[in-house]
Structures are given as structure tokens and as C-alpha cells.
Automatic annotation (TrEMBL):
PANTHER family named among the record's database cross-references: CELL DIVISION ATP-BINDING PROTEIN FTSE (PTHR24220:SF470), IMPORT ATP-BINDING PROTEIN (PTHR24220)
InterPro entries: AAA+_ATPase, ABC_transporter-like_ATP-bd, ABC_transporter-like_CS, ABC_transpr_LolD-like, P-loop_NTPase
GO molecular function ontology, one term from the record: ATP binding
SUPFAM superfamilies: P-loop containing nucleoside triphosphate hydrolases
Protein name (Swiss-Prot/TrEMBL): ATP-binding cassette domain-containing protein
Domain spans labelled ABC transporter: 6-226
């Protein structure tokens, strides 16, 4: 049996005092690809933020990559995030340094010290996303799709057990979205677990996976119809 990467039982997600989602029970196994869908404001991002410790879990039980979200302390959050790869809609690359140094910054921040090992890791993750020749470019010299590939490469630096992608194609045109999705699909095919929040239904139809919908404060699995 594949190991459980994420387990939620009777979880409620709050933002300040507002109840966003209620009665969430969900299990994600190693190697799964799961979409989180729903309208803007339905709670997708709040759900993702709860998984990486940005919103504290106040109600229910939650475990992510062996961290208990209910008892998670502030000083444990960096250790949780080292076991996660997080990809945002807006890339979040540092504009004042080239791609290699963007990635080096993350490695140093997470405790890497050996320069040769850092160089090898940077080359490895850039190769995985088809950006091996772009390390000396600055973010503004890259297209949106290329920047998102770099953001995905960055999420792979510490060999995460789970990748959380929050609307990773939200700022991209349809063709570029498909290219970025292909990269995520290849990463999933290599055995990594991915949870992706999206409202891009064309991608879901093209790359069908388990799909969880946020609607009316609830989360439930939707069965995709064959097209």
C-alpha cells in the first residue's frame, strides 16, 4: 500500500473568524495527482495555505508529510516547508539576481553549504523542467511560462515529498499552461505527489486526475465524465 502523504479528518478552515470550509475529510497517497477546483473565493487558496502552515489548523485533525497541523509550532513551519514544494501563481522569483542565484538563495536558506553540491542540484532541477541553458538569465528576460518552469524547478530543490501548486497556470495563456502542465505531469510520473488548485477546466479534461471541488463551504470529490 502506498504511504499516506496527507490525511485530513473533520477539518474546518478559517480565515480570522470566518469559516471558509467545513467537514473536510481527505486522504492523499504517495504518487497521486489531485486537483482542487472551485470558483474564485470558494476556499482553494485558504485550503492550500492550511497545508503549508500559513493558516493555523484550529478544528479537526490534519497530517501533512508526517507533520501534525493541529499541534504545529511556529518554529516547525520551516521544517514542514522543506518537505513541501510550493508553486504560486505569480512565480515569486527575486528580480535582482539571475536564475542560478535565485535557486542558490533557496538552497542556502534551507541549510546547504557545499558550493559544488549546490551547483549540481541547480543543474539537475533546471534540466528536469527543460531550462538547463537559462540559469544565467534574469527573471525579466524570461517569458511567463519560463518563469513558472523556474518556480517549479525551485520547488524541487529539496526533493519534496509533496508539491503544492496554487493556480500555477493562472497567469499563463492556454498554450503555455499546457506546457507547464506537461512538466508537472512528468514530475508526477516520476513518483512525486502533487496537489494543484486550479480553475482551468481545459487542463483537467486534458490531464484527468482525482478532482476535489470546493463549493458552499464543503469539499467533495467530483467524478469526471469522459469527453
Amino acid at each position: 500500500m502506498p504511504e499516506t502523504i496527507l490525511k485530513l479528518q473533520d477539518v474546518a478552515v478559517f480565515q480570522n473568524e470566518n469559516l471558509i470550509l467545513n467537514n473536510i475529510t481527505l486522504e492523499v497517497k504517495k504518487g497521486e495527482f489531485v486537483y482542487i477546483i472551485g470558483k474564485t473565493g470558494s476556499g482553494k487558496s485558504s485550503f492550500m495555505k492550511t497545508l503549508y502552515g500559513d493558516i493555523p489548523l484550529r478544528e479537526g485533525y490534519g497530517s501533512v508529510v508526517d507533520f501534525n497541523l493541529k499541534t504545529l509550532q511556529e518554529n516547525e513551519i520551516p521544517f514542514l516547508r522543506r518537505k513541501l514544494g510550493i508553486v504560486f501563481q505569480d512565480f515569486k522569483l527575486l528580480s535582482d539576481r539571475n536564475i542560478n542565484n535565485n535557486l542558490r538563495f533557496v538552497l542556502k536558506a534551507t541549510g546547504w553549504t557545499d558550493s559544488a553540491k549546490m551547483d549540481a542540484k541547480i543543474e539537475e532541477v533546471l534540466d528536469k523542467v527543460g531550462m538547463k541553458t537559462k540559469g544565467f538569465k534574469f527573471p525579466h528576460e524570461l517569458s511567463g511560462g519560463e518563469q513558472q518552469r523556474i518556480a517549479i524547478a525551485r520547488s524541487l530543490l529539496n526533493d519534496p515529498e509533496l508539491i503544492l501548486a496554487d493556480e500555477p497556470t493562472g497567469n499563463l495563456d492556454p498554450q503555455t499552461s499546457v506546457e507547464v502542465m506537461k512538466v508537472l505531469q512528468e514530475i508526477n510520473d516520476s513518483g512525486r505527489t502533487i496537489i494543484m488548485a486550479t480553475h482551468d477546466y481545459a487542463l483537467i479534461l486534458k490531464y484527468p486526475h482525482k478532482t476535489i471541488k470546493c463549493d458552499g463551504n464543503k469539499m467533495f470529490e467530483v467524478i469526471q465524465k469522459a469527453v
